[in-house]
Amino acid sequence: MSSKRKIDYTEIEQNIDIEEFKESVITYFSKVPDPRDPERVFYKLEDLFFIILAATLAGANSINQIAIFAQVKAKWIKTLIDIERIPTYGAFWWVLVRVKPEFLRELLKGWIRTLSSGLRDQILAIDGKCLRGTQSTNAIHEVLHLVSLFSVDTGLILAQQPVADKSNEIKAIPKVLDGIDIRGAAITIDAMGCQRAIAKQICDAGADYLLALKGNAGLIYDEVIQYFQEAAEAGYEYLDHTYFTWEDLRHGRKVRVTVRCVQDVEWLPQLEYWEKLKSLVEVVSERTERGRTSIERRYYISSSDVDAKQQASRIRGHWGIENHLHRQLDVNFMEDNSLVNTGYAAENLAVFRRLALNELGSGKGLLERRRKAAWDEEYLTQLVKNFFVKSF
Q1: Residues 6+ apart with CB under 8 A from 34
Q2: Confidence class of residue 270 from pLDDT cuts 50, 70 and 90?
Q3: How far is CA 210 from CA 163, 175, 179, 187, 285, in A?
Q4: Using an 8 Å Cβ cutoff, are 189 and 212 in contact?
Q5: Where along the chain do its domains lie?
Q6: CA 307-309-314 angle, 5° bins
Q7: Which of 184, 194, 332, 391 has its CA 20 to 30 A from that of 371?
Q8: Which comes out higher in pLDDT, residue 22 or 356?
Q9: How confident is the model at residue 8 (pLDDT cuts 50, 70, 90)?
Q10: DSSP code for 158
Q11: Which residues neighbour 328 within 8 Å (Cβ) at sequence distance 6 or greater?
């Protein structure tokens, strides 16, 4: 901000902006039902949520750290929200344990709907993550397992859904996609999500799928493997296809990956069962380390007829979810170390981590940005204002 702008920014204008900001906080959290007894409420739900989000942006990774942040930043908090006294640990704990997480999940989706760019032409990866520290036989979930929809291009988490106990990701994936405008996007899912119903849901929503094939897909898996094996034995000489190769030289190893894409699928006996199936993909990874070479083959089916280079970009994007999402949550937010699993607290905290990650960005320097938010109140103010401005 220029010096001229600072001079022009009068006290009246500052007060108007602050009042509008306070109203935006109330509006954003207004759809979340308060489970507390109205006669015993000392702190408004939206105020507690605002502090939790701000604390998470500024490096808090536990309920105790959120409470400490609230005490240390009391003066800063009171400049942004109307609150007479700062909540203690018990107030944060009680709300996080009692508020049903589906309402916060909808806030995550609602925040995404405010983005003007949309999701067209983006690579969206669906993958699951188990929060190992939450394992308990006395909690709502024996261990919290979350499935996320992640934008490879922007680094944004678009939605999340817990996997029910004694279930798997197959039932959670349709719920993750529900309510998100994925028209024109490419959805990548590992082998667990290679299901006919999921493929149809993606196509019906106007997107394309790229699904990893394994034995759980049925006979189509055997057909595709045999097809590419016969092509490999002939040196791919007569295979009508496109291919793309890249190499990765890091940490004393060499990995050469070749992606082959075939759009001749009319011969496939299972073609009619897979919605808009247009191409088959083989990925051959040749890994050389310490003089030893190993080869791994993976197979995919897709509703898109793009060439091997574009499919390779989608596959690499999906593989990158481990570093760009899971690793960031574990290393920078210490998610795997969180032992909180009373009531709904584990999932609610997980939503706030993802909201904070979306605002901070998942790229390089995330830890430094969180530290800056903790030390620089002007920067933290800008972060929370940016978040709530995007929400409307």
Answers
A1: 41, 45, 99
A2: very high
A3: 22, 18, 20, 6, 18
A4: yes
A5: 3-99+362-390, 108-328
A6: 100
A7: 391
A8: 356
A9: low
A10: E
A11: 357, 362, 366
Burial (Cβ within 10 Å: 0-12, 13-18, ≥19) of residue 1? exposed
DSSP string, 55-117: HHHTT--SHHHHHHHHHHTHHHHHHHS--SS---HHHHHHHHHHS-HHHHHHHHHHHHHT-TT
Containing H/E element for 197? helix 196-204
Closest residue by Cα to residue 165 from 326, 341, 330, 350: 341
CATH 3.90.350 for the 108-328 domain, yes or no:
yes
Write down the pTM of the prediction: 0.84
Residue in 176, 97, 165 with CA at minimum distance from that of residue 135: 165
* Residue 69: half-sphere exposure toward Cβ, Cα within 13 Å: 27
Would the pLDDT of 140 be above 60? Answer: no
Reported as a single tens digit per residue, the pLDDT across 301-335 is 999 999 999 999 999 999 888 777 888 888 888 88
The span from the CA of 20 to the CA of 355, in Å, is 21
Provide the sign of the torsion angle of the four alpha carbons 354, 359, 363, 366, taken in this order: negative
**Tokens standing for 90?**
């018990």
- Distance separating alpha carbons of residues 279 and 265, to the nearest angstrom: 6
The per-residue pLDDT for 7 is: 45
Query: Exposed/middle/buried for 89, CB within 10 Å: 0-12, 13-18, 19+?
Result: middle
